[in-house]
Amino acid sequence: MRRIPVVMATPDMILAKDVWGRDSILLTKGTDNIMCYRDKLILNGIASIYVEDEVSDDIYDESVVCDNTREHCTRILSDTIDDARVTGAVDMKDLDVIVSSLIKEMLNNPEMILGLTDICTSNDITLQHSIDSAIYALFLGKLCDFKKRELKLLGKGMLMHDIGKIALDPNILYKNGYLNSEERKHIQRHAQWGYRMLEEDGWLEPPAREIALLHHERLDGSGYPFGLKEEDIPTMPRVAAIADVYDALTSERCYKAAMSNEQAIRILREDAENGKLDKKMVETFVSKLAIYPNGVVVLLNNGEPAIVKTQNRVDSCRPIVRIIDFKNQCAYARRDCDLMEERDLFIVKSHIKVSDLPERLRCQFA
Ligand SMILES: [Fe+2]
Question: How far apart are CA 336 and CA 326, in angstroms?
């Protein structure tokens, strides 16, 4: 499996993950002849897709939570949120089921290196963001030695952290481009509205509820809704803020391209340096992240493109990669290369586009 820009789809590829547009599924996993759908994908704002082809059929996702669990949890959460829209109440039993299955899978995976590498795999942005940021938060919570009971609270709180968005005006919530100050204030109300919804039910414990209320607070007082500072912000909302920001930056949505992991890590570190996010937690989080997840196409310093094949636990900047070349737009493997051993080679860019390729390869996609 590898992730490619849509314009690089070729006849030999099969789609490796579902692709969703804003309201409906565009293409299902297993679709062949993807080239025929290039225009449809581009028109729907989809910039990249996961594909299987000969050059990548032995490369696997190393997500800390497998796709099946993620899809299963997304389905349950989707029903929970739909019910909440109608009844205004959240079924806590469903949240327990989701969090327990996520924690079970994560605890069975001690060498965690995270690689969610998101594309539009769900039609509901809030839903997908809730699941993925819960996975990131649980990952960080585990690294911070949270007890199982604390992880459960953290997971449930993260699944519900943006529940207040169901009360927002969709025209503002999904608006592309600039938001004026009134619109920004409207969006910011989701924190308090979500907290109130969860408070009314009374079934979600206070530390988990606080995640909905305080996940946009920042340690320097620049956040909302209260502008709290430092020790006034409890541990769980601090974890939630890091997971929330990282997922928002690295997720590809119908209206924006994903930021690469290294760019997102740079922003997290800047926010920590500027006193917004908890510095120790950010470093803990970053130390275990797969900077170049499996299947991502990267550019090496010698100008050669390569696919990330396997992670290196010692240094996540130096994975094992498969150097590729192209003939008639189809990729083929030149050789596998362990960047821990070949120290003169290193990755200079990930999520590469056609324009990043050397001229002799770029012209094949003109
Ligand atoms: Fe939020």
Answer: 15
Rounded to the nearest angstrom, the distance between the alpha carbon of 365 and the centre of ligand 1 is 40
Domain that holds residue 281: 67-287
Query: 98 and 7, same structural domain?
Result: no
What residues have their beta carbon closer than 5 A to ion ligand 1? Answer: 162
Do 25 and 56 sit in the same domain of this protein?
Answer: yes
Ligand 1: centre distance to CA 196 (Å): 14
Same domain for 233 and 136, yes or no, is yes
pLDDT band, residue 21 (cuts 50/70/90): low
Kindly state whether residues 245 and 114 are assigned to the same domain: yes
- Domain end residue (candidates: 262, 287, 312): 287
pLDDT tens for each residue of 123-134: 466 777 888 899
How far is the C-alpha of 100 from the C-alpha of 94, rounded, in Å? 10
How many angstroms does the Cα of residue 161 sit away from the middle of ligand 1? 6
Cβ atoms < 10 Å from Cβ of 31: 18
Instruction: Assign residue 213 the CATH number of its domain.
Output: 1.10.3210.10
Residue 191 Cα to ligand 1 middle (Å): 6
Same domain, 112 and 243: yes
Rounded distance from Cα 171 to ligand 1 centre (Å): 17
Q: From ligand 1's centre to the CA of 190, what distance in Å? A: 7
Distance (angstroms) between ligand 1 centre and the Cα of 24 equals 24
pTM of the prediction? 0.78
Instruction: Name residue 84's amino acid.
Output: A
Which pLDDT value is given to residue 288?
83
255 C-alpha vs ligand 1 centroid, how far in Å? Answer: 18
Number of domains in the chain: 2
Residues 121 and 185 in one domain: yes
Quick one: 29 exposed, middle or buried, by C-beta within 10 A (0-12, 13-18, 19+)? Answer: middle
Expressed in angstroms and rounded, the spacing between residue 149 Cα and the centre of ligand 1 is: 24
The alpha carbon torsion through 319, 54, 261, 118 (nearest 10 deg) reads -140
Task: Please choose, from the candidates 206, 225, 101, 105, the residue with its C-alpha nearest in 3D space to the C-alpha of residue 160.
Answer: 206
Regarding whether 95 and 195 lie in a shared domain, the answer is yes
Which pLDDT score, from 0 to 100, does residue 260 have? Answer: 77
Ligand 1 centroid, distance to 354 Cα (angstroms): 34
User: Are 127 and 54 in the same domain?
Assistant: no
- Determine the distance separating the centroid of ligand 1 and the alpha carbon of 151, expressed in angstroms: 20
Q: For residues 141 and 321, give the distance between their C-alpha atoms in angstroms, rounded to a whole number.
A: 30
